[in-house]
C-alpha cells in the first residue's frame, strides 16, 4: 500500500483542487492507498473541507493537530501515522505535481531504490525567492557535504525500511530533506519544474524560509562555528601585525596622532565578537531544545474510516 503525507495550513482555496487531483494521481499507481492530510492548526475552513472529503472516501485520513506546530512537525506527524509499504511526502500548495508520484513509485519498485527525491530542474514564480532558495541549496550542499540534496525538498517517496530509519532520529530541530539524505540507502531522483502557486498566498514566507535554512545548516554542519574560528585567527594575525607596525611607527617618530583608528578598531572587534556570540548562541539554543525533549506535536483528533468489528 502507498501512503502520501500532505501538511495543510490555511489552504482553503486549494483543497478542492488538491484532493481530487492527488487521489487521481494515486489511483494510477494502485487502488489501495492512504492519503494522510495533516491539518497544522488552520484557522480558516481547511479542516472542515478536509473532513468532508474524508467522509466521502475511506482512503483519506485527516490528522488534526492541536495547534500550528510547523511544517516539519506536521510532516513528522503524518509519517509516524502512515501504514503504507511505500510512503511519500508532498507539500500542500500543488507546487509539487502529484502526477510525478507514479514515476517515483516505479523507480522504487523496478529499479530497486529505497528513496526517490523530487529535484527541481527549474522554478516558476517569485524570481528573488527562487534565487535565494537556489543559493541556500548550493550552500547547504557545500557546507554539509551532502551532494544528493541540491534542489531537493520535501517531495519524495521511500520504502518502509528507509522510513523506519528516518523516524528513528528523534531530534526536535529537524530538517527532513537533510535527515532523509543522512540515512543513506540507495537514493534516486526524478527531475521536475516546480510550479508557482495556483491560488492563495505562500505560507512559507521569507522569514520562515530563513529559519528553516538556519535549522538545516546549524543541524548538519559545523561550518558556522569553524568559520568563526578561522576569522578569529585571521583577525588575531592582522592585529598582531598592526600592533607591530604601530610600535615601530611610535619609536620611529612618524606615528599619526588621533583616535579614529583606535575607535574603528574597537567597534570592528566588538562587532566580530557579537557575531561570534550569535553563532555560538544558535548552537546553544539547539542544544537546549534537544535537552527539553518536548514532543514535536500533539494530535487533537484523527478522522479515518474504521472497519466494523
TrEMBL record:
InterPro entries: Glyco_trans_2-like, Glycosyltransferase_2, Nucleotide-diphossugar_trans. Signal peptide: none annotated. Keywords: Glycosyltransferase, Membrane, Transferase, Transmembrane, Transmembrane helix. Its main location: membrane. GO terms for cellular component: plasma membrane. It is found in: Membrane. The keyword Protein biosynthesis does not apply. The keyword NAD does not apply. It is a multi-pass membrane protein. It comes from the Bacteria. GO terms for molecular function: glycosyltransferase activity. Residues 3-164 form the Glycosyltransferase 2-like domain. This is Glycosyltransferase 2-like domain-containing protein. The lineage of its organism: Bacteria, Pseudomonadati, Bacteroidota, Bacteroidia, Marinilabiliales.
Amino acid at each position: 500500500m502507498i501512503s502520501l503525507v500532505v501538511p495543510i495550513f490555511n489552504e482553503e482555496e486549494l483543497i478542492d483542487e488538491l484532493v481530487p487531483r492527488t487521489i487521481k494521481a494515486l489511483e494510477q499507481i494502485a487502488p489501495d492507498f492512504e492519503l494522510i492530510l495533516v491539518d497544522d492548526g488552520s484557522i480558516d475552513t481547511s479542516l472542515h473541507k478536509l473532513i468532508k472529503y474524508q467522509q466521502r472516501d475511506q482512503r483519506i485520513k485527516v490528522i488534526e493537530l492541536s495547534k500550528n506546530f510547523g511544517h516539519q512537525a506536521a510532516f513528522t506527524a503524518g509519517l509516524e501515522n502512515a501504514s503504507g509499504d511505500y510512503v511519500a511526502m508532498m507539500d500542500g500548495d500543488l507546487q509539487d505535481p502529484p502526477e510525478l508520484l507514479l514515476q517515483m513509485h516505479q523507480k522504487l519498485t523496478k529499479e530497486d531504490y529505497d528513496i526517490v527525491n523530487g529535484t527541481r530542474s527549474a522554478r516558476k514564480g517569485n524570481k528573488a525567492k527562487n534565487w535565494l532558495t537556489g543559493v541556500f541549496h548550493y550552500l547547504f550542499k557545500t557546507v554539509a557535504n551532502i551532494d544528493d540534496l541540491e534542489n531537493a525538498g520535501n517531495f519524495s517517496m521511500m520504502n518502509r525500511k528507509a522510513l523506519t530509519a528516518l523516524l528513528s532520529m528523534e531530534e526536535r530541530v529537524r530538517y527532513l530533506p537533510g535527515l532523509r539524505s543522512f540515512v543513506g540507502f540507495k537514493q534516486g531522483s526524478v527531475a521536475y519544474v516546480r510550479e508557482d502557486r495556483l491560488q492563495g498566498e505562500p505560507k512559507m514566507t521569507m522569514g520562515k524560509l530563513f529559519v528553516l535554512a538556519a535549522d538545516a545548516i546549524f543541524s548538519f554542519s559545523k561550518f558556522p562555528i569553524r568559520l568563526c574560528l578561522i576569522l578569529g585567527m585571521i583577525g588575531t594575525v592582522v592585529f598582531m601585525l598592526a600592533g607591530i607596525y604601530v610600535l615601530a611607527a611610535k619609536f620611529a617618530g612618524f606615528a599619526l596622532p588621533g583616535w579614529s583608528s583606535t575607535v574603528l578598531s574597537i567597534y570592528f572587534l566588538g562587532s566580530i565578537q557579537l557575531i561570534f556570540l550569535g553563532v555560538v548562541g544558535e548552537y546553544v539554543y539547539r542544544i537546549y531544545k534537544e535537552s527539553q525533549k518536548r514532543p514535536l506535536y500533539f494530535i487533537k483528533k484523527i478522522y479515518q474510516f474504521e472497519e466494523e468489528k
